[in-house]
Amino acid sequence: MDSNRYCVIMAGGIGSRLWPLSRKGYPKQFHDILGCGRTLLQQTYDRYSRIVPKENIIVSTNIEYSELVREQLPEIGVEQILHESSFRGTAPSIAYVACHIRQLNKNANIVVAQSDQLILDENLFVDTIGKGLDFVAENNKLVIIGIKPTCPETRYGYIQIDNDISVTDKSSIYKVRTFTEKPAYEFAQIFMKSGEFYWNSGIYIWNVQTVIDTLAKMLPDMMNDLERVFAELPNRDERRRRVYEIYTSFPNVSMDLAVMERADNVFVQVGEFGWADIGTWDSLYSTLPKDADGNLNMRSHAIIYNSHDNVISLPEGKLAVIQDVEGLLIVDSGNVLMVCRKGNEGDIRKFLNDARMKMGEEYI
Amino acid sequence: MDSNRYCVIMAGGIGSRLWPLSRKGYPKQFHDILGCGRTLLQQTYDRYSRIVPKENIIVSTNIEYSELVREQLPEIGVEQILHESSFRGTAPSIAYVACHIRQLNKNANIVVAQSDQLILDENLFVDTIGKGLDFVAENNKLVIIGIKPTCPETRYGYIQIDNDISVTDKSSIYKVRTFTEKPAYEFAQIFMKSGEFYWNSGIYIWNVQTVIDTLAKMLPDMMNDLERVFAELPNRDERRRRVYEIYTSFPNVSMDLAVMERADNVFVQVGEFGWADIGTWDSLYSTLPKDADGNLNMRSHAIIYNSHDNVISLPEGKLAVIQDVEGLLIVDSGNVLMVCRKGNEGDIRKFLNDARMKMGEEYI
Questions:
Q1: For the whole model, what pTM was predicted?
Q2: How far is Cα A149 from Cα B56, in angstroms, rounded to an integer?
Q3: Which of A186, A112, A155, A159 lies closest to A284, judged by CA?
Q4: What is the pLDDT of residues A279-309, one digit of tens each?
Q5: What is the distance between the alpha carbons of residues B44 and A120, in angstroms, rounded to a whole number?
Q6: For a disulfide at A180, which of A92, A158, B185, B226, Cβ 3.0-4.6 Å?
Q7: Which residues numbered 268-287 in B keep a CB inside 8 Å of some CB on A?
């Protein structure tokens, strides 16, 4: 396997949109949400192990979760886990891990993986990501995997491509024209019909120097600080400690907002391997198989009477008895039971914040 | 205190209509359902301790619950607990305990207490039951405490009195004319207006010989068996063992159906102390105080958004987040979560039976 290939698994999120199943102390990536016997993080690791040498897989996570990562991925070494000292956006995470990888290999080609995605055709996925890594080995471009829409989904970000400038017909890589965050349904319909719009998967591919150069342009203060640490501290542990200290001073911004939407060397590579984001209850509901009445039962024991279109998630061994309800999220997890209307994604964060304010940190 | 006074606390029920809070292994009478710091059984004991000498209080329960009774009432001796070997109706329980009490005191006057009732005016209650016990000391009658209806309640049994034959004006004791099980709402309205109908509280008062004589008439086989045990086995422990053995052969019938509705010496004593049965979710809902939106929160932590007329019962320390629901029972207890329509009392038994069939005994 090409030893210049690296993978960064982003596993530092709280997954607050899947609260109360996803908890600050035990976020969604550490759950076996799909019920396949492996957690989302483990599935992600398995998937990228087929593309990248195992010793080149780096997990970027918050210090709070490093023990969970080690438990769930006992096969990776401590040096393959990068800790963040505080919750920031994806841009600082990616900048830190890029500097770290450059230290290991100046010719690294990196795929940045999300740990909360469902991939249907793993072989096609492996093939697609491989082609992307080969492409950035030769091209100083920032590539995002764009997913061909299968429905006018309003929960995803869309990327419009420039049909005229296809970099290579073979692997379908197009220049990006615009980014559009979660659109209204009418727009999503138009986007889908047009054939020019792709879902933003959040999977990035680039070579290490290109991403560092672009970050230096877009977030110069942060990159100066990071570059100084890597230049001044040759000792790995000292570097880690220093980054750990300064991490809280980094801006809380996402890679898309801070870099991808502003850079002029951003391309979309089309992925047709069947993809879904499983970051929210609604995305789980639309992605996972339901019973004849439209109930999504997340492997809970359940006896259901005259009830439609609900999501039911209970701890193992617990029995749900459900009658005469429709369109509810019924989630029993740890010290929280949530019974609320399905389809109001924004409310989950409100619930979580209210639980924090009224009850304390142990409920979030 | 009159040493001829005895009290039998009936504490052998499963409380299946309050499932899944009330469980076969831990029925409602052992829960602090009203949130006053004492369980229903303890409250019942406290209440009758003011009427009957403590050493004359007998708890009649199933063998499965004798340890729970001893834990919750450490002040009573083992000889004050009578075990049943199987779940039968109230008639065999009452027959057994009557024979037991006659052995102790041939002049005993007995009040049979239910352990799942809410009494508002305890002083008036103590006064009323005391008068009833004095009455049966002088009269070979079977007395039921009848509650003056405060609303056209359809969940209770009604007893019609014979207004012409008031035994004594002072303590308002009337001969019974008819029993009517849970009536339709229209009938309940008529009953209430008529002034002749009272709620059947299930609290019975009689002297020991009268109840034994009446039982012998109504259930002769069972009483013959019991009388033989008490005649042939002077040793208390042997008697207990023998009754324990034959108990399963006794009929599964209630005292009301087998005796009270058929005997001609049955009287109603009017109770005006404020009473409610708390045997079902609906009775809890109508009895206990609710918030401004009509939600009954049984001391659970709860954050409630735009929700009306629900019952919420969770384990201690657990948080309920409830949004956009109306008229639901939301009960989280042990290994069962129930989310169902409020007001369909009969369904609870169906749920319980289905849970037993599909999941096993540990869920009921």
A1: 0.87
A2: 78
A3: A155
A4: 899 989 988 899 999 999 998 899 999 999 9
A5: 62
A6: A158
A7: none
- Asked if B335 reaches chain A (Cβ–Cβ under 8 Å), the answer is yes
Contact B336 A319 (CB under 8 A): yes
Do B314 and A301 count as a contact with CB atoms less than 8 A apart? Answer: no
CB contact under 8 A, B318 and A335: yes
pLDDT at B84: 86
Beta bridge partners of B26: B23
Q: How far apart are CA A101 and CA A56, in angstroms?
A: 9
C-alpha distances (whole Å) from B4 to each of A54, A77, B49 are 85, 80, 14
What percentage of chain B reaches a pLDDT higher than 70? 98
Chain B interface includes A192 (CB < 8 A): no
List chain A residues with CB under 8 Å of B322: 338-340
Q: What is the pLDDT of residue B123?
A: 96
Q: Which residue of B has its CA nearest to A364?
A: B319
Both structure tokens of A183: 């659109």
Residues contacting residue A220 through CB under 8 Å, at least 6 positions apart: none
Rounded CA separation B90/B278 (Å): 18
Tell me the pLDDT band of B170, cut-offs 50, 70 and 90: low
On average, the pLDDT of chain A sits at: 93
Is the CB of A347 inside 8 Å of chain B's CB atoms? yes
Q: Which amino acid is located at A294 in the chain?
A: G
DSSP type of residue B169: T
Residue A216: both structure tokens together: 């230096």
* Separation CA A117–CA A48 (nearest Å): 13
Q: How much is the pLDDT for B344? A: 86
Beta bridge partners of B271: B147
The answer to whether residue B339 neighbours chain A at the CB level (below 8 Å) is: yes
- Average pLDDT value for chain B: 93
Note whether A281 and A309 are within 8 A (CB).
Answer: no
- Give the residue with greater pLDDT, A166 vs A111: A111
